Amino acid sequence: ELHGNGVSGNLCLRGSWPGQARTIYGDHSRFKETYFTRFPGLKVCLAESGIDWVPMLINRIDYVMTHSAQGQSGWPDPDHRPSEVLRRNFWFSVIDITNVMDLRDHIGVDHIVLESDYPHADSTWPDTPSFLADRLAALTDDEVAAVTHRNAATLLRHPLPDPIPDPGSFT
Fold first, then answer.
1. Which of 87, 89, 106 is nearest to 31 (CA)?
2. Which residues contact 83 (CB under 8 A, 6 or more apart)?
């Protein structure tokens, strides 16, 4: 959903997102200036993208923008670094949880969503519960809730059901 400059509505990209991220109709500046500057509330979820590459991208973007003369002039938003826009506007989905989850705060734990990728061959199904219990053991309960369901519900504006009472509380 887009809001800004007197315009609101939904943006639906059909086809390959990476191809459109490189250019929108052959006009790279239109992409940069139109979407993330004009519509700071734009939310993009990169499905089946994993998260292993995200910390490197964040670090590389910041390095290039501070060390490269070309980089300093190549970004239209003087108030926000590209890495801040990446953390603000993008959500990253992950199937195989690796040790990169240790860098969840660098990525933004509130922008990581889990997927099982059912019924594809690389799915964690039918072992998803035990897989997640093992791979998320180091996270706090709040972080587990965030990446397993709360972030996706927030992103998609889908209300969560009321919590199920503890069965031990029934007498």
1. 89
2. 58, 61, 62
Judge whether 54 and 46 are in contact, CB under 8 Å: no
Closest C-alpha among 157, 133, 155, 131 to residue 144: 133
Mean pLDDT of the chain, nearest integer: 78
The helix or strand, by DSSP H or E, that contains position 45, with its residue range, turns out to be strand 44-46
Residue type at 13? Answer: L
Supply the DSSP symbol for 100: G
Structure-token match 């989850």, residue found:
101
Task: Extract long-range pairs of 11-15: CB within 8 Å, 24+ residues apart.
Answer: 11/35, 11/39, 11/42
The H helix count followed by the E strand count for the chain is: 9, 5
Q: Which two tokens stand for residue 60?
A: 């590389």
Burial of 79 (0-12, 13-18, 19+ CB in 10 A): exposed
pLDDT band at 1 (very low <50, low <70, confident <90, very high): very low
